Amino acid sequence: MSEQGRLERVLHAGTRYLPHTYSIIAGNLCHLQANPITIRPFIYLRNLCVSNQENHMYCTNKFIELANDLKKEGIDIVTVSGSLMTASSIYATYVAAGNSGALESSGVDKVVDVYRRTLEHHQVIKKAEVQKLASVLST
Known about the structure:
Layout: H1 3-12, E1 22-25, E2 28-31, H2 40-49, H3 52-72, H4 77-97, H5 105-138
Antiparallel strand pairs: 1-2
Helix pairs in contact: 3-4
């Protein structure tokens, strides 16, 4: 069996078959469609084939999808936002200090700085979108 055939069997093992296009790129099976399927072997292989920016957007969109699903379940958006922030702080601690570690005050400051830069960056983008929309509506 070819390498691509073996990898495709891994992707579809234990899942219902979904027609997707795959290709071997640099020895890795890569998904070539815009909407990735969410099975673990694929996510692992997907990470080998796309840029960090694409992975970042993919993950961001998954968290927004989860937040919207929780909102549809009737959970208040403030609670959803706070829960996402709590989960993010737990995971940031894990990334920085491991599963049994904790952040010192300097580590907390570094995480807060990253959050601040990310939030400020998003506000710049949102303000530009609002200005663009206002200019389109005024013409």
